[in-house]
């Protein structure tokens, strides 16, 4: 299947092409481009496998399609879902995905990524009970089933901005981020604070269960604190150095939550298995070959999580702030990567496929499909058909095309006129401290917001 060559995933003996804008016209055209670039991506013309249900213990997921956690930065200042939050989840619920992975939700004020990030605590649980019930009821009325809803519990770490001003809390100083200006030592989280966080996130998982969520994600991706700890090779103490130490926070938090949550409550993680940063600053990279992907440690970690009882895992790679082409291949961005976007998609899918093959009893969710537009349905079916994932997760596509799942299940395909075009404007809104959404396909709200943002208006 996949062969490694330098920093790329290619068919042996072929040379990957450089970056070019998306211009795929058909499945045959996609297949031809993949072969010409020496890239392997599974394709299945028949997408019906995506409509089949999946059972995780006693929990039934109605189909193999999922909405990835897409943060809206549109909650209230006290952490409750706001009007645009409700609008977004109404659109997702009407869309027919079997699994809705609820967005990054902080568990304390200091760990919020912005003043309007959602934040769950004992004082606002009723608002979360309401939105979960709203999601499930809305979907049931339209599609005849309740979606599984999993909340992503986060500590924003180096991206913490609870008052709109950077207030980083880091696992260690990283010259790839700090350069010649290391962050003050008092901003490096102490071992005892991590121990407290293990209990805090576990308790938040328990609160999530009480709110009606079907599961909780101990967020460990995209260089937020849980992810950064996995690459803390140079950190001193019991959370740095060895893999045992670097994975201690994730494993302990999962164990603590398992002890207080019901056995049928899904405890999971959205996990970076490859950061794309050179050793010793990146997880899942070779120690000898720059940014080459090396999944040896991630495989060991997932085996430990599986033995601890984790049944579902959501796989991702890269960092949307530093190397976004790695985890979100695109047409337009802040730079042009020196690789084909199809190669980027293949790398993400290989990461998920490798994890699924290593743990066939786990349910692996893949990422990175939006770049493929309407053909993402066929690739999702190919991934499931070949046993390379159990569920296909869609991120940016959800914002552009919230009813993607319904269209795949009912028509067997996606409408290219509804698909995300990977223009990056949703990200531009977030970078400008505004509420992100699809500027192209959801113009009524986000097109207007984008225009005001570009004009420099204060919103």
Describe the structure.
With 459 residues, the protein is α/β, with parallel strands linked by helices. The protein has helices at 27-37, 83-95, 125-143, 175-178, 191-210, 225-229, 243-246, 248-260, 296-307, 324-327, 341-358, 376-385, 396-400, 404-411, 425-431, 443-454, and strands at 3-5, 8-10, 54-56, 59-61, 65-67, 99-106, 148-154, 215-218, 266-268, 270-272, 312-316, 363-366, 391-394. Helix 5 (191-210) packs parallel to helix 8 and helix 15 (425-431) packs across helix 16 (443-454). The radius of gyration is 20 Å and the shape is globular. The termini are far apart.
What is the total domain count?
A: 2
> C-alpha Rg, in Å?
20 Å
Helix/strand structural class: alpha/beta
Instruction: Pick out the low-confidence regions.
Output: 1-15
| Number of DSSP-assigned strands | 13
What would you say about this model in short?
The chain is an alpha/beta fold. The protein is 36% helix and 12% strand.
Which descriptors would you attach to this protein?
single chain, 459 residues, alpha/beta, TIM Barrel, 2 domains, 9-stranded parallel β-sheet, two-stranded antiparallel sheet, 16 helices, 12% strand, globular, disordered N terminus
Secondary structure: elements and pairs:
Elements: E1 3-5, E2 8-10, H1 27-37, E3 54-56, E4 59-61, E5 65-67, H2 83-95, E6 99-106, H3 125-143, E7 148-154, H4 175-178, H5 191-210, E8 215-218, H6 225-229, H7 243-246, H8 248-260, E9 266-268, E10 270-272, H9 296-307, E11 312-316, H10 324-327, H11 341-358, E12 363-366, H12 376-385, E13 391-394, H13 396-400, H14 404-411, H15 425-431, H16 443-454
Parallel strand pairs: 5-6, 5-13, 6-7, 7-8, 8-9, 10-11, 11-12, 12-13
Antiparallel strand pairs: 1-2, 3-4
Helix pairs in contact: 2-3, 5-8, 15-16
